[in-house]
Amino acid sequence: MRLISSGQHHATFEFGDLQVISLRDGYIDMPPTRLRDEDGRTLDELPAAVPLAGDNLRLSVNAFFVTDGTRSVLIDTGASNAWHDPTMGLIYDALDEAGIDRAHVTDVAITHKHEDHVSGLIAPDGSEAFTNLERVWIGAGDTSVFTGRLEPIRDRVVPVSEKVAINDWTTAVPTPGHTPGHTVYDVRSGTGHLLAWGDTVHVPTLQFDHPNVSWELDGNQSQARAARAALLEQLTRPHHFVAGAHLDSPGIARVTPSGDGYALEYLAPPIG
Prior knowledge:
Domain Metallo-beta-lactamase: 60-246
Organism: Actinomadura rudentiformis
Shape: globular
Pfam family, one: Lactamase_B
Protein name: MBL fold metallo-hydrolase
Radius of gyration: 17 Å
InterPro entries: MBL_superfamily_lactonases (IPR051013), Metallo-B-lactamas (IPR001279), RibonucZ/Hydroxyglut_hydro (IPR036866)
Structural class: mainly beta
């Protein structure tokens, strides 16, 4: 995995015979009270290594475009204007900056139903953001999100209820816990695996050192914790990389064991 170009809102990596483009949708500030210990209680205090923006945790919001030059898949779509936060909804600028024509996006893979991942299917003006969209892959437990503003997309939804190949080099892997339909996408190239893992980790400066810490919005915290443990262990294998929606943009890194937890090594400097 090698960084080959970057800009204000994107970073492009060579990944064997694939290109992986990280797209920055922006960031959202969240209170530290959303963090939970193993008993579901609010953490008493944060380690000094966890930075705050004012009194809040600052979470990057990333999406990822993967292509072999012929076929492509966009993993997550950002928030559009659904979150009503001016720091988000930048994915369309990121796509333009990276030279990706939205009309060429036919397949979108959604990690889960929360607004900062699925809302970008609809542009701020209410139109479909991807005019030639053919399929939207999403965990079967999360398909209920396709109502209201997302209703026009419903006829192209492909529910994922078990491990399934969505193209020659990407496999959808159900990892319920954060939401019932939370799904990880395993992207394989000739040089390794990239796991686009959605909301497996929200606070990278904390949850790699302390992977048992969970998030208030994990629908099933024990299930989410177990999924995180299994994915972290998988990522320590040779030639495995992670693409995280809430890792610091551009959000692509490798994971190694470290003490009772794990260490995270980003493959590119922060953008944004």
